[in-house]
Amino acid sequence: MTFTESELAYLNEMRSLSTDPHGRIIFVGLTLEESIRFKAYNDTFIRSEAWEDPDEYIRLTDKHEIARIAVIAAEAQARNQTPTSH
User: Model confidence over 16-44: pLDDT tens digits?
Assistant: First the structure.
């Protein structure tokens, strides 16, 4: 998968990306194959093209968002458990 610099910056800020065991960029919660399909769906949306399988897009989105929210929750919990120094 290829991303523009602005896509990478945005997706990293949103906690949407991770790496698989081989060091390849993937969407959090998705396999490499799922990530490739998910990105293709998002790219076709940007170009206003019809989706091949809208139900698959919804399934991938749900799977990804559940994992992404878990990452954000874990970061928040870690931040709250670590006292800040003043």
Answer: 999 999 999 999 999 999 999 999 998 88
Give how far Cα 78 sits from Cα of 5, 35, 38, 84, Å. Answer: 28, 27, 29, 12
List residues bridging with 19 in a β-sheet.
25
pLDDT tens readout for residues 9-21? 999 999 999 999 9
Partners of residue 18 on adjacent β-strands? 26
Instruction: List the domain boundaries for the chain.
Output: 5-81
In SS3 terms, 30-73 reads as CCHHHHHHHHHHHHHHHCCCCCCCHHHHHHHHHHHHHHHHHHHH
Instruction: For residue 80, give the H/E element and its range.
Output: helix 54-81
- Phi and psi angles of residue 17, each rounded to the nearest 5 degrees, phi first: -115, 155
CB 30 within 8 A of CB 20: no
Question: Is pTM beyond 0.90 here?
Answer: no
* Structure tokens given for 2: 């290829």
